[in-house]
Structures are given as structure tokens and as C-alpha cells.
Specification:
- The complex is a heterodimer of chains A (about 525) and B (about 500).
- Chain A is about 35% helix and about 0% strand.
- In chain A, the strands form 2 sheets. Chain A has a two-stranded antiparallel sheet with strand order 1-2. Chain A has a two-stranded antiparallel sheet with strand order 3-4.
- Chain A is built from 20 helices and 4 strands.
- In chain A, a hairpin with a 5-residue loop joins strand 1 and strand 2.
- In chain A, helix 1 packs across helix 3, helix 10 packs across helix 13 and helix 15 packs across helix 20.
- Chain B is built from 21 helices and 2 strands.
- Classes of the chains: A mainly alpha (about 525), B mainly alpha (about 500).
- At the A-B interface, helix 11 and helix 17 of A face helix 10, helix 16, helix 17 and helix 21 of B.
């Protein structure tokens, strides 16, 4: 017979641990039998009345954790939530850790489950559940809140993490196997360069703004909507969604190491040395965040928590456009690969690359000839090439995606832009026929986190990408002459894959601000 | 029913059960009729501008509403109140617009159909497409029998047909296109903020609020003016910043607190709607829709939204119908032209001299209490090029000054028309007054405080009874029934065909 949780919990409760938490924790950890909170509470605290007054009016005093757990598995919750990891919605544990100490939490969560809505954890709205009774929801909330981990287990909030500067020594060239110098056109492979000096205060403010939806026209999307930290700073979709009412026609690229690139955007149209301009374009472009930058400025002025930071950083509290772009750009500099096996290998840790990955490295620089374009520290030549990646069929099927594509061509002054039925890439900049379908060479770091691949996300896996290059790329007249069928064996493809995987380091993420700092009414004449 | 019909093969088996069914479940048939009647109210109002049965649009899908409230006994009452009063919060941040003019019967019918969860019934006679009537001059010259004239001021006679710019002549097809575009959210940034959202036919072609709602994530800073008779203004917006309805459509659609749309995006969206491609070709002779022509079509549509003298008590009275005005309205008419001196500015057929005056209308209280209103106040000072000092204070709307940058124009706003007031409250440039009684009381006290206040504005010293008479007269300047139009069905997007080869493009 299983032991009653309450009997185990009793001494913890006497020691000040909230009973509900203790019950849940034990139930999860030990599988002990959970009885009703009421009886357990009474057993634990003797004659003292159960403290259900603190804002927990919506959770029935007889909360039944087991019933709550059952309800959660029987309803549609599991489609979007898991205990430990974020799916569509947040992990139960994260919810419990955020709200565990908040006396209003039960009431808030009961309302959220019943009514649905967005805003606490992101823009994806929670579905409403109008058919559940109050008691049912109360039990579910009790179970969710019981998933709180104790302080030691909870991860400390991560704010801006500055990359370690110079932690990896520059490569000993001898460790990078020789490649055919005569045919090679770019830089040798190398570890990431040292991080440039980063202004922490600016980067921290930039981090907050990165998540602030008020930087978009209708105040519903932020940078993090399409560059989700937990999705490799992309969005995990082949094609990005874009501003409400629109759908974008290219993949949301990762921001990891983005500021080290010589060019921004898939079509390479922006100068990589100027992240602020990239930020400006994304915030003000009609198909991304569509904000009038003056409106953005005035909104930010209405947020006292930001004003203090502007004051601190710039000496006056004026959040005008270029400053917003600059601080978000500063934040982007902090998003860098961490602890990459390949870098450690280059620095001398031979064991971090498997045999297979090391064979892959040879292939990368030899038979497969990836090094021709994927070279240097980012494994990108910063160049533009026609590889003939197939069009994503959705772009022509979906009017909303065709609209953003042709509008993009029109705003770049492409002659007869209505005639195009494919993505013409860098052509929008030069209008030279040779540039039709030319795209920026993508960096190859942290690919583990950044699927799907290519400018239109048409390949879901790296194996597909390797197959594409093994076949000599796509079928377009102006394809880059570097692309030829490679004749790789299955084993060689696996080795190449192993090497590509060794280019991914630890997960790179950043903590979302707990909440959006609120607007406040200002006094007149103090503006 | 002729007997021989019953003898036809195949008729009997179908008729008998029908008769039996109607006998036993008369209540159900009644309900179906009620549902159909309820749905008819839906099509007659503006509901379909924001809602569809099976998919969310600006607002939630009707079937989702039915599903959410299926077990809620209080739902019918709550829903009726929601439709009547509007408000946000149940389904998202976009507020429902209020519908104060729906009767209790209409509300009950609408709610009954929504909560039934039934798909839209086939209406026997589909709501007739409103015939587009292009305003024309009357066949005969009108002789005004009861007109009051004041020396030196143009009298309020019948509205002539509105002026039409020579580069945008009116055609029925253009007006029809404009009517669709007026309701089409694709001319706004998020595709959910069409002209209609702030200029609803059911709310006197305004949005029923004091300060207009504005684009999601913002709040406007002025009242959404009625579209009715806007065709006659030579300057549009409260500060007269544009000079044509075409310019107004462009400015409102692209403004950050209006439609917030990028014109290249709006244009490309139109090009993916085959019905529009065809309509722009027919109406304007264009190969592809162009957004500047969309503004023209909308303006042409708006030029049809004018008061018809036949429907306005005041117009019937001055043409000789002695019974058209009540005794109170008649007394009000004399006050208007005499003691109250309204005619000084509210003259000519439009009941507006189209000039600009400072009255000292107090700023809306939201400027003191609402962060979004404060944000917009600063935004507007900044966007309109006010001085740094004005920007720093940003608590006052300086009106005409933003256009002229002449300090004597601070606080001046264009005299609005007094026609159709019955349907177009709240009043004044910031919607600060909810009722005409408040407006009259404001003038009776000699207006508000402002350094540039017009010397024409003086205390009137008219009695409460006289104020009521004035209001009765003002209401007699409105059509008997509100001028409305049905919400047109929105044409769909379609993928591009392979009609043009890329080689043609180069």
C-alpha cells in the first residue's frame, strides 16, 4: 500500500513548506498517494483552519490533486503543455515556479484556464475552456501549482549573458587539417572571434525591448515572436508568420552569431556591420512589425521602468528611434554560440569530436568541398550564391505569402515585379540577371537549434540538405559553377552530418522578462 | 392548395410527414422562423462586417460564441447587453462596437440565432443590394416658402448635389467598388481596421465613442466624424489638414492611429483579389489595382452618403410643409437664427461656414487619465511639427495651428455641419459632449476658456425651455431614418495565375 503523502508532508508543513507544494512534489517524486488537500491540511496543521483565504477563493478548499491530474490528462491540456518542457504553452513546472509564491495565483490561473487569452507567456493565446466547472479547474490549478520545484532546483533567472571573451584561444592552424589551398577561395575554418566590448546596460535594455510587443504597430508582436529564444532564435517554421494580416515569404533566420555576419537578411541586402539598421528595418517594415517609429518612441516614453534606463544610459530619458535600434542591436551582439565542440577541438580537446565527425571535417574540406563557401569562423564566406534551392510551394499557393513577396520586390523597385513567381533573392538589390535567386551563404553554427533550413525553410533536416548538395544542388540556369554532384556514400553523408552537429554548442537562450512593464499616466508638462 | 397537386406521384409521401411534423412540433417551426428572423437582423445590421459563422474575423466566429455559452443560462441577456453597449475582454483586446440603436426585439432575435449555433439560414429574399443612387440636382428649382434669412449670411437651404472633383467623376460601378473597399480591412495594417471600424453606418458613420478608438494598440485623440455629408467640406479633418475625401481616405488609412497600413502592402493585397482586379479594370481602366485609386473609389462612395431633403423635416418645412416641424422646433428655428445666433457660423446648406474657430471646448478627460491618449497627444504634436515646448506639454489639441503654424490659430477647429446630428453623437472635435443638450448648454454659457476664443461666442442667456427648443430644431435637421448601407460580402484572395512569364519581366 502506498504511503499517504500527507503523512510525509506533515513535518515539512510544520517546517513552513506550503502543504500544496509539498503534496504535489512528493506525488510527482515518489508516487505516493495524494488525498484531498483539506484532509491533508487538517491532518498537517491540527486544529488550525486551512489557510485558503489568500486569494485562493477560486480554488475549492477541497482541491483534489489527483482529480486535477486526471482532468489535465483527459482534457486538451496535454496538446500544448508538458510538465518539464515548453511546448506550445509553458511547462507546468515553469508556471508553478513563477506563480508558486503568489497568493493571487490560483484565482489568476483559474480565470486563465476558463477564459483563455494571451500575454503571460507569449503571444500564442491559451484556448478557453468554458465547459469545465469551477471545481474541476480548481483541482487542475492546484495540481499545476503543486509542481513547483524548490529554490535550489529552480533555474536562476538569466538576464543578459555576456559571451566569455577570449575563452577560446585562436586556433592553432596545425589542428585544422590541410585543405587544397589552391582551390580554396576563402578563409580557413576558425573558432569564433573574441566578443567585442558589449555595453551591458544597453544590452540589458535591448533584451527587454526585444520582448516588448509595443514595438509593433498593433502592439501584438515583438522581435521574439519570430526569433524565439527557445527555437534557436528562429521560429521553427519553414516560413515566418509576419505581421498580423500578413504571412512572410522567407524563413525566420537565427539570430545566433548574427552580428558577426558581413550581411544581414537572406538576400544579403543589409550591411552586417550595422545591426541597428537591421533592427530598424524589422521594427518598421510593413510585413514584420509595422510600427510608426514615432508612435514607438511615444509609447516607450510612457513606461517609467524604461525611462530610468534611458536616463542611465544616455544621460537623458529620450527613447528615440535610433537609440531603440542601437540598444536592441547591442543585445543581438550577446547572442552567440557557446561551448561548441568544434571550437574546443580546434583549441586542443581532440576527444570532443567523434571519429565520424573528424572524418566529416575531412570531407567538409575535401570531397564534399563545403569549405568553398562555408568557411571562416562562421562557416560562411559572407558571399551570395545561386544554389537552386527549390521554391517553397506554399509561397505561390498562399496569396498572403505571395503578397509579401511581390510587395518586397515592388518596394525595391524591381521592374515588372508582378511577373515573378519565385523568390529572386539578391536581384532586388542589383537588378542584374546573374543575381536572380542568389542568397547569402548561411553560417553553419548551431544548426541543431535552427531547423528548418535554407532561405525558405524548404528542408526540414540536415540530411535533406546534404542530399541536396550531394546531388549538385538544384536545377537553375545560373547556378553557381562550384556546385557539382559529390558522389558521397551513405557513410560519408553520415560523417558529414556528424561534423555539422559538432558545430552546435550549448543551447543559446535568454530569459523572457517576467512581465511587460506597464504604461503609466504622466503629469502634464513633464514629458 | 389545388387537389391535383396531392395526386402527383411522389408528393404524398413527402407532404404527409411535413403536415404531421408541423402539427406536432409547431413550436420548433416557430423557432426556425424566429431564427431566420434573427439572422435577418444580423444581415440588416453591421454584424457581418466583423463576424462570420464559422471562422474568427475581427471578432469571434458566431458558432464559437454559441459553443462557449451553450450551458450558460444568463448568456442571452449578457450577449444582448454586449451587442448594445460594446466593449472588450471576452475574446481579445479588440473592442466590440456598441449598437445603441438596435431595438430589444432585434437584439433578442440576433442573440437567439447566435446562441442556437445553427448555420446561417437561407433567406428567402436575400437582402437587396442597395441601389446606388448618384446624387443629382432636383428637376425643378425649389421655392423656399419658410426660409429664415439673416443679412450677409447664406441661408440653410437644401443641400445641392455634392461637388465632384473633375478627376474623379462618379459612376455606379465606382461607388460600388468604393463601398466594398470602405468595409475591407485589407486596406489597414492588420487587415482588421477598415474605414467601417471607426465609421459605422449603425453609429451615424462615426464610432459612437467620444475620442475615437483608433488602431489597435493605440487610441485616437479626436472624435471620429460622421461621413454623412462630408462630401461638401472643402477641408477635411477637424483641423482641415486635407482638402478632399480622397486625401482623407489616404491619410486615415495610413495614419498610425488610423489604419496604420503601408500603401505598397495594401496595393499588393488588392491585386490578389480577382474581383477587385476586374473592378479596377472596369472602373479605372487599370491593369492592376492601384492604391491611390482605391482612395478615389472610397471617396466616390462617400459622396453618395448625403442627406436627401425629402427625408429631413427642416428641408420639408422650408419647402412649404407647415406640419414638418413641431412647435418647439419652430421656436428653436427662430432662436437659431436670432437670439442664439447659431446662424453666424452654422449657415449655408451644410449648416457650416467651413471656417475655423476657437470655442474653448475642454480637453477630454482621457488626456488626464489614459496613457494611450497621452501617447497619442505626444505623437501628434511630434508628427505635426509642433514646437518643442508644445510637445513637452502635449496636453492640448491645438487644432488649426498644426496646419498653419500661426499662433492665432491655436485651439481652432472647423465648424461642423449640423445635419444628421441625431445619429452622430458624441459631439465636438474630441467628443467631449454626449448630448445636444450639453452642447447647447455649453454655448449658452458662452463657451469655454481659450485665449483665441471667437468674439462671436458670448453667453446667450436663453432659458431651459429655449434650450430644449433649440435641441428640437437641431434634431429636425436630421433625416427621419438613419442613412445606412448593408455590409457587402468581402471578395476573397486567390493565388496568382501563371499568366505572365518571367521573361516578360526582364
Amino acid at each position: 500500500m502506498k504511503k499517504k503523502c500527507s503523512s510525509i508532508c506533515r513535518r515539512y508543513v510544520q517546517g513552513g513548506v506550503p502543504l500544496v507544494l509539498c503534496l504535489g512534489l512528493l506525488a510527482v517524486a515518489t508516487g505516493c498517494e495524494v488525498e484531498s488537500v483539506e484532509s491533508a491540511t487538517n491532518a498537517a496543521v491540527g486544529d488550525r483552519p486551512a489557510d485558503t483565504s489568500a486569494g485562493s477563493g477560486s480554488v475549492p478548499p477541497t482541491a483534489d490533486l489527483e482529480a486535477g491530474a486526471t482532468l489535465i490528462t483527459q482534457n486538451d491540456c496535454v496538446a500544448c503543455h508538458k510538465l518539464e518542457t515548453k511546448l506550445v504553452g509553458p511547462a507546468y513546472r515553469d508556471i508553478a515556479n513563477r506563480y508558486g509564491d503568489d497568493p493571487d495565483a490560483p484565482a489568476i490561473l483559474v480565470d486563465k484556464i476558463r477564459l483563455g487569452g494571451a500575454g503571460s507567456w507569449g503571444e500564442i493565446p491559451m484556448a478557453p475552456h468554458p465547459t469545465l466547472t469551477n471545481d474541476q479547474i480548481g483541482n487542475m490549478v492546484a495540481w499545476i501549482l503543486a509542481q513547483k520545484t524548490n529554490g535550489a532546483e529552480a533555474t536562476a533567472p538569466v538576464e543578459v549573458i555576456l559571451p566569455e571573451m577570449g575563452a577560446i584561444a585562436y586556433a592553432d592552424p596545425a589542428r585544422i587539417p590541410a585543405y587544397r589551398e589552391s582551390e580554396h577561395v576563402g578563409e580557413p575554418l576558425a573558432p569564433l572571434p573574441e566578443t567585442p566590448a558589449i555595453d551591458t546596460a544597453r544590452a540589458e535594455l535591448g533584451r527587454q525591448l526585444f520582448f516588448d510587443t509595443r514595438l509593433s504597430g498593433d502592439a501584438t508582436v515583438s522581435c521574439a515572436t519570430c526569433h524565439v529564444p527557445d527555437q534557436g532564435f528562429g521560429d521553427g517554421q519553414p516560413l515566418a508568420p509576419g505581421y498580423p494580416g500578413s504571412l512572410y515569404f522567407r524563413n525566420s533566420p537565427t539570430l545566433i552569431n548574427a552580428t558577426l555576419q558581413a550581411r544581414f537578411m537572406w538576400d544579403g541586402r543589409l550591411d552586417g556591420s550595422d545591426p541597428a539598421t537591421l533592427v530598424r528595418d524589422m521594427i518598421t517594415e510593413a510585413h514584420t512589425m509595422n510600427v510608426d517609429s514615432r508612435m514607438m518612441q511615444e509609447r516607450l516614453k510612457q513606461v517609467p521602468e524604461y525611462l530610468a534606463q534611458w536616463q542611465e544610459i544616455f544621460g537623458d530619458a529620450s527613447p528615440y528611434g535610433p537609440r531603440v535600434y542601437a540598444v536592441v542591436g547591442e543585445f543581438l551582439k550577446t547572442i552567440r554560440s557557446r561551448n561548441v565542440p568544434f571550437d574546443r577541438y580546434v583549441a586542443g580537446e581532440t576527444g570532443v569530436l567523434s571519429e565520424s565527425a573528424r572524418r566529416g571535417l575531412e570531407l567538409f574540406q575535401g570531397k564534399a568541398n563545403c569549405i568553398q563557401c562555408h568557411n571562416g569562423a562562421l562557416l560562411s564566406d559572407a558571399g551570395l550564391h545561386v544554389t537552386g534551392v527549390p521554391e517553397h510551394p506554399e509561397i505561390l499557393k498562399s496569396p498572403l505569402r505571395s503578397i509579401t513577396m511581390l510587395r518586397h520586390f515592388s518596394t525595391f523597385g524591381v521592374p515588372n515585379y508582378m511577373a515573378y513567381r519565385r523568390d529572386i533573392g539578391y536581384y532586388v538589390v542589383t537588378k542584374e540577371k546573374a543575381d536572380l535567386g542568389k542568397f547569402r551563404t548561411a553560417p553553419l553554427r548551431d544548426l541543431k537549434y535552427t531547423a528548418p533550413y535554407m532561405h525558405n525553410g524548404v528542408f526540414e533536416t540536415l540530411a535533406e540538405v546534404i542530399d541536396f548538395y550531394n546531388a549538385g544542388g538544384g536545377d537553375v540556369p545560373n547556378k553557381d559553377s562550384l556546385l557539382k554532384p559529390l558522389g558521397l556514400t551513405a557513410a560519408e553523408k553520415n560523417d558529414l552530418l556528424a561534423f555539422l552537429q559538432a558545430l552546435s554548442g550549448d543551447s543559446v537562450t535568454v530569459t523572457r522578462p517576467e512581465r511587460l512593464p506597464e504604461y503609466q499616466v504622466r503629469e502634464f508638462g513633464r514629458n | 392548395m389545388p387537389v391535383h397537386h396531392l395526386n402527383r406521384p411522389g408528393q404524398v409521401p413527402t407532404l404527409l410527414p411535413l403536415v404531421a411534423a408541423s402539427f406536432f412540433v409547431a413550436g420548433a417551426v416557430q423557432t426556425q422562423n424566429q431564427l431566420t428572423a434573427g439572422y435577418r437582423h444580423i444581415t440588416n445590421s453591421d454584424c457581418l462586417g466583423c463576424h462570420a459563422y464559422d471562422a474568427p474575423r475581427v471578432g469571434p466566429a458566431f458558432k464559437d460564441v454559441a459553443k462557449r455559452y451553450q450551458d450558460d443560462p444568463g448568456a442571452a441577456e449578457a450577449l444582448a447587453a454586449k451587442i448594445k453597449n460594446g466593449g472588450a475582454g471576452n475574446w481579445g483586446e479588440v473592442p466590440m462596437i456598441p449598437h445603441p440603436r438596435l431595438s430589444d426585439t432585434e437584439l433578442a432575435g440576433i442573440v437567439r440565432w447566435i446562441l442556437s449555433g445553427e448555420p446561417p439560414p437561407q433567406l428567402e429574399t436575400p437582402a437587396p443590394a442597395p441601389a446606388v443612387v448618384l446624387p443629382t440636382a432636383p428637376a425643378e428649382e425649389v421655392t423656399y416658402k419658410n426660409l429664415i434669412t439673416v443679412d450677409g449670411l447664406p441661408p440653410i437651404t437644401h443641400l445641392p448635389p455634392p461637388p465632384v472633383p473633375p478627376d474623379n467623376p462618379m459612376t455606379v460601378e465606382k461607388v460600388e467598388l468604393g463601398r466594398k473597399l470602405f468595409f475591407d480591412g485589407r486596406l489597414s495594417g492588420n487587415t482588421r481596421s477598415s474605414c467601417f471600424v471607426c465609421h459605422s453606418p449603425q453609429l451615424g458613420w462615426g464610432d459612437g465613442g467620444g475620442i475615437s478608438r483608433g488602431y489597435p494598440g493605440t487610441r485616437h485623440w479626436r472624435n471620429a466624424q460622421t461621413i454623412l455629408n462630408s462630401a461638401y467640406y472643402n477641408k477635411i479633418f477637424w483641423d482641415g489638414s486635407v482638402v478632399s475625401l480622397e486625401g482623407q481616405a489616404h491619410a486615415a488609412a495610413t495614419g498610425a492611429v488610423g489604419g496604420n497600413v503601408d500603401e505598397a502592402m495594401a496595393e499588393m493585397r488588392l491585386r490578389f483579389v480577382p474581383e477587385y482586379v476586374e473592378a479596377f479594370r472596369q472602373v479605372f481602366g487599370l491593369k492592376q489595382p492601384r492604391v491611390t485609386y482605391a482612395w478615389r473609389a472610397i471617396a466616390a462612395f462617400e459622396r453618395t452618403l448625403v442627406s436627401n431633403p425629402k427625408n429631413v423635416p427642416y428641408d420639408r418645412y422650408i419647402a412649404g410643409d407647415e406640419q414638418a416641424l413641431t412647435a418647439s422646433a419652430l421656436r428653436g428655428m427662430k432662436l437659431f437664427h436670432g437670439k442664439a445666433n447659431c446662424i453666424q457660423c452654422h449657415n449655408s446648406p451644410l449648416a457650416s461656414d467651413q471656417k475655423f474657430y476657437a470655442l474653448g471646448v475642454p480637453e477630454h478627460e482621457l488626456v488626464q487619465s489614459d496613457p494611450l491618449a497621452q501617447i497619442t497627444h505626444r505623437f501628434e504634436q511630434y508628427a505635426k511639427g509642433a514646437s518643442l515646448d508644445m510637445y513637452r506639454k502635449a496636453d492640448v489639441d491645438h487644432g488649426l495651428y498644426y496646419v498653419t503654424k500661426n499662433p492665432v490659430d491655436k485651439g481652432k477647429f472647423r465648424t461642423p455641419s449640423l445635419r444628421e446630428l441625431k445619429y452622430t453623437g458624441p459631439y465636438m472635435h474630441n467628443g467631449g459632449f454626449s448630448t445636444l443638450e450639453e452642447v447647447v448648454a455649453f454655448y449658452n454659457q458662452g463657451g469655454g476658456q481659450h485665449p483665441n476664443k471667437s468674439p462671436l461666442i458670448k453667453p446667450l442667456q436663453i432659458s431651459a425651455e429655449e434650450q430644449a427648443d433649440l435641441v428640437a430644431f437641431l434634431e429636425a435637421l436630421s433625416s427621419d431614418e438613419p442613412i445606412v448601407t448593408a455590409v457587402p460580402a468581402m471578395p476573397d484572395y486567390a493565388p496568382l495565375g501563371p499568366s505572365v512569364t518571367e521573361d516578360d519581366a526582364q
